[in-house]
Amino acid sequence: MASLFGDEDDVIISLQEGYEGWVICQYPDCNQQVLIVQLEEHLLSHSATSSDEISDLEFARALQESEDQLISAIEADYQLALSLQNQETTYTQAKPNTQLATADIAPRTYSSAAKPTNYQTRGNSNYSYKPSPYANIKPGSNIHSLSSVTSSVKGKGRGEGGYTAQTLNKLEQQANKGAITSVDLHFKKLEFMENLNSGKDDLNSCTEGVLQSMMHSYGLFSPSWSYYLSLDTPHFSYSLGDRGWGCGYRNIQMIIGSLLMSDKYRVVMNRTFNGNVPTVPRLQELLDEAWRAGYDPQGAKSLGYKVRDTKTWIGATEAAVLFRSFGVKAEVVDFIKPPGSGNTHARLIQWVEDYFKRSTCITTDLPPVYLQHSGHSRTIIGWSQYRSNKYLTILDPMTYPDKLRKCVQLKERELVWLLSRISSHFYKSEYQIVSITGLIESHKKESYKIISPIQRLTH
């Protein structure tokens, strides 16, 4: 993984391999410059070679004081990275003992991270720095609070702040509760900032291989299920930054992930994403850009023409805007259930069945379908029938990735029940779906900027 400030060969911070900084050993009369990831081993060597046994407290003090140097360096690097991102400045390469020259930012010398002349690379190690078991002995001073950073990125919308502010606040809360150490906190912030600037989702909440496991799990039932499944689709769940409001974006990520694996849609999707599923903030930026380009002016006005750095909920219309701006046909269908019509949305279930049964194969080449109702949205990846009951196969952003990954790995019946929703489950008064129906010809793009339902179906 490339660092924030240079190429892999000149890593100052490498989030895959740990922090490659050098600190001064605080063991009495040592003062040797030591690679941070080798610090604990170095301190243990003092104990092994000393005629006097080093106490746990003395060991902890030396280790903690050295780790404090690391934390200070990480804090400075984090603040610099945030400044660069806020000013939309291009990162320039920086080598040890050189300065990072950037417009309107004071140059900074990385002398504290300089490599000694006898430096030897650790090769392709996947070493990840972890604090020592003595790290619970607190240093004399506290780590700087980043409350000023989170307050500076608060935006409009439901609640305070957007994805960035919520992520930073949640990480701070974890550190305050002792769930993560101070060093881990700063590593997580650096990793978050790198992903944010790249625009590529870190895939930490992504689960792949769902449909392959579903096909195996269906075969475990007797009598067997009748089923149809969409294109292969990754599942994306909430993360720290969008829990409680980001379901629309997560479902859009699922569909984007599916289209990127489709022979029909891959080329046009790669023009925007280059093979990578975008982050939630990147999707917010793209929606803002689509509105500025004239897509769905009525919807843009109702949401204040801006969702970036907000927690504003989005729905089916905004999903259709995004896909159309990518060059993909996205049609909205409304399903309205009149009062007294019973507890099921028969037309919704029938529409999904007809959609998937257009294929002659149970594993179709059809994209998944975006499903919206009041307060939440999900992704439909299939239709099935077991005995006399009909089901929609659903990927829900609220499903915890650990639970889903376990079911996907085991390929047992539980996976089918986890993702299947019987027809009586769809009892809301109204639903909307967004279906992907093809590619937009370049000369017809203007005609797709106005979003309106192609059908309004009642029970």
TrEMBL record:
Keyword Ion transport among UniProt keywords: no
Protein name per its UniProtKB record: Zinc finger with UFM1-specific peptidase domain protein isoform X1
Any GO MF annotation of the entry: deUFMylase activity
Alphabetical UniProt keywords: Hydrolase
InterPro entries in alphabetical order: UFSP1/2_DUB_cat (IPR012462)
Family statement drawn from the similarity comment of this UniProt entry: Belongs to the peptidase C78 family.
Occurrences of domain UFSP1/2/DUB catalytic (ranges): 228-434
Residue intervals passing through the bilayer: none
One family name in Pfam for this protein: Peptidase_C78
Species lineage: Eukaryota, Metazoa, Porifera, Hexactinellida, Hexasterophora
Keyword Membrane: no
